[in-house]
Amino acid sequence: MHYAEREALLLAPYAMHAKDSDGRCTAEPDHPYRSPYQRDRDRITHSAAYRRLSHKTQVFTGDLAMWGTGGDYHRTRLTHTLEVASVARTVARTLRLNEDLVEALALAHDVGHPPFGHAGEELLNERLATCGGFNHNRQALRIFERLERRYADREGLNLTAEVLQGQRERGTKPARTAEQLAPQRDQQGDTPLLEAQVVDAADSIAYDAHDADDALEIGLLTLDDLEQSWLWREAVARVRVEFAALPEQDLRRAAIRELIDRQVGDLVTQSQKRIEGSGIDSVRAVRATPTLIQHTEELAEGKLELESLLFRRVYRHPEVLAHRVEARAALTAAFDRCAEEVERLPPPLPQIAREESPERAVADHISSLTDRAVLESWRRATAG
């Protein structure tokens, strides 16, 4: 069965059907058994930038020695990305949206992150203050459109217009801090596709759950600390209904599961009501309608309460901030060293230095590195 026939049977009229795609910058013939969005997903998965996410910070640096733990439980950018894709696919299937597009958008959403997460983004943004700044969402577009070299006859990955537009709409937002940024109209006044809205919501759900989970594992939070959040208290209460007594580790993992399930269930139910109430029947109508993929007001307030707690107790924890100081020193040294040898950077960076600016070329290079590569280079340089 051709993908267009399959989508016609399974997808809602307001979903983004691949046959209606605006295509690619460089036209390509149809694939015999993969839809355009499946091909986008595969191109992103096979990219170098995507693979490097396995060694990039989510919240806690991947340098385990810095945390005094021999375990490797906490998330990286890659495992976060996979969790976002998992949640987003579930929501998309339930709402009869295009799962292939959702998965491509989810796998793409953090590809532009530099080493050490937001600490790295802040430093690069400062260094590029006079030439446009640095934003990880916009950096992903640079990767997809120019920096990745997977084909002999062109730059970039030649992704579909819908995946690029979804990432471009994310790029209009400031960097996420404590609160998850809700889907919003872009600078042209259009609302993002429902598939893009789902990925934004899934990103928020994944953050809330796994940042709490990782902080508990490392010891930055206790179960008692999380009792300040009614969402957490509710998740624990639901676990207790099924299991009267559990060891702390089992309780924690069961509560994390319930926390995710509660948010996903609320999002699906409320979004379905909003979709049905809006009367939308096409992608054009979605673009002209305010955001539809949303939580209930009660749960949205609960999420903000939990995220505020995580911001105070985890993201601003003295140990986390201390590790960011070391990360910043390592990144500063790497940036300065590369700035002195721009012409020795791998292609196409010397050309970018001439066409745009040396700082932009250096940022393109630094943002492609992993935490480990930056730290090892810095420690070798300072050892003597």
From TrEMBL:
<dbReference type="InterPro" id="IPR050135">
    <property type="entry name" value="dGTPase-like"/>
</dbReference>
<dbReference type="InterPro" id="IPR006674">
    <property type="entry name" value="HD_domain"/>
</dbReference>
<keyword id="KW-0378">Hydrolase</keyword>
<dbReference type="Pfam" id="PF01966">
    <property type="entry name" value="HD"/>
</dbReference>
<feature type="domain" description="HD">
    <location>
        <begin position="77"/>
        <end position="208"/>
    </location>
</feature>
<feature type="region of interest" description="Disordered">
    <location>
        <begin position="166"/>
        <end position="192"/>
    </location>
</feature>
<dbReference type="InterPro" id="IPR006261">
    <property type="entry name" value="dGTPase"/>
</dbReference>
<dbReference type="InterPro" id="IPR026875">
    <property type="entry name" value="PHydrolase_assoc_dom"/>
</dbReference>
<dbReference type="InterPro" id="IPR023023">
    <property type="entry name" value="dNTPase_2"/>
</dbReference>
<comment type="similarity">
    <text>Belongs to the dGTPase family. Type 2 subfamily.</text>
</comment>
<dbReference type="GO" id="GO:0006203">
    <property type="term" value="P:dGTP catabolic process"/>
</dbReference>
<feature type="region of interest" description="Disordered">
    <location>
        <begin position="20"/>
        <end position="41"/>
    </location>
</feature>
<dbReference type="Pfam" id="PF13286">
    <property type="entry name" value="HD_assoc"/>
</dbReference>
<dbReference type="InterPro" id="IPR003607">
    <property type="entry name" value="HD/PDEase_dom"/>
</dbReference>
<protein>
    <recommendedName>
        <fullName>Deoxyguanosinetriphosphate triphosphohydrolase-like protein</fullName>
    </recommendedName>
</protein>
<dbReference type="GO" id="GO:0008832">
    <property type="term" value="F:dGTPase activity"/>
</dbReference>
